[in-house]
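User: My collaborator sent over this chain with a note saying "see what the structure looks like." That's all I know about it. Can you take a look?
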Amino acid sequence: MSTKTPPAPSPRPRGLLRAWTGENLLADVLGAVAAFVLGIVLLGVGLVDLVSEVGPLGSVEPEPWWRVALLAVGCVVLLAKRTHPLLALGAGLVVVSVDLVWGGSLAILLVVLWELLFEAVLRTGRTARTWLWTAAATLTLAVAVAAGEASQELRYFVFAGLQMGAVVVMPMWWADNVRQKAELAELERARADEAARAAELERERAADLARIAALDRHEAVQAERAAMARDLHDVIASHLSSIAIHSGAALALPLDPQRDRTALEQVRESSVASLTEMRSMIELLRADVPQEPLVAPGRLDGLGELVRSARSAGDDVTVHDPQQVTERSVPAAVGQALHRIAQEALTNARKHAPGEPVTVAIDDGAGLTLRVSNPLPSLWVHDAPSDHAGQRCVVHPQRGEGPLSAGTGLITMRERAEGLGGTFTAGPTADGAWQVEAGLPVGEEVV
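Assistant: Without extra context I'll predict from the sequence alone. Here is the result:
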């Protein structure tokens, strides 16, 4: 189903063709009243009989109240200048014609005719304005020529032309000027809107390109993973099968040094080939990962090195290990988790409570339990809300926020402990200290 784009609106000044609203009607009524008062003032000072007695002009001598009534009619006509500008102008021309028969008055020509001409040019379309300008130019020229012919003097021709220009051409020129400025302002607004829409489309296009690039990268990663899975199956699985076959054969047969040596050489060769293939795949996976120093994973027996490092940094660290747990052999996963939790807890103590003594305690009960505690400085309070990890945070009473931190330390320690089926708590204690406690179960199998 096709949809047609609606035509763009023509750049017309806003509000030129609006129907009456309460606000516009009130403004028109007030304007008509003001025009009537001004006209009364002009009639009162005697600004009448402006045209000489030429033909029918000035042939009737009206009563004073006639002019007031005619002015009132002209002011009533002004009420229709917004909604029906051409009809209002036609009715106004009738009023002006009657006023000219009575000799003409500045009240009708200036107050009524000026306003009707201004509104007609301002609120009508191009064709109507062309006809209005043509009629005004023709009338001005005709009056000027008639005055010149009647007086046979050039100055009367010029004077009549200037008078007609002031009465007829001036309000029309003024309205055209106002209209042009309004149209230019409307064009500028439309141009700004178009620029804003173009910028928004460009932002959407950039976002779409970014999403497409992300999808392409995801597809490339998936394809590479599929290829690696095939390689693992085709290469490493083959080597491991060879290792299993040769070792199984050596174990199944009676001892034979020469045959066993050959089998062990085959096992070693397959193992080295498997390690080489595995290293190549790992290097491929880490091609875009920033290089980090290669170190052995932390174990529980490395707790002493952590403590020495903290002491060399100026921390006062005390270790309580009455059962010599750090010297035992514990499962690798448990030892690594406790090592990392102790490392993060010591880092947090240095960050949040610099200069305060730190106590590291480890014991073996139902499982291995690690406790790292330090006194809270006096500028931290205990009754703070819980963070998103379910632990209570400390808040500075003046600044209203904790120390600068990424906020992931507690979450990481909790994940390490709970990932091995253990427990984790962190928070202030009743004696005014901050304590991190992790309890991990230890199975019978050790490394």
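A starting point for your reply to your collaborator: The radius of gyration is 49 Å.
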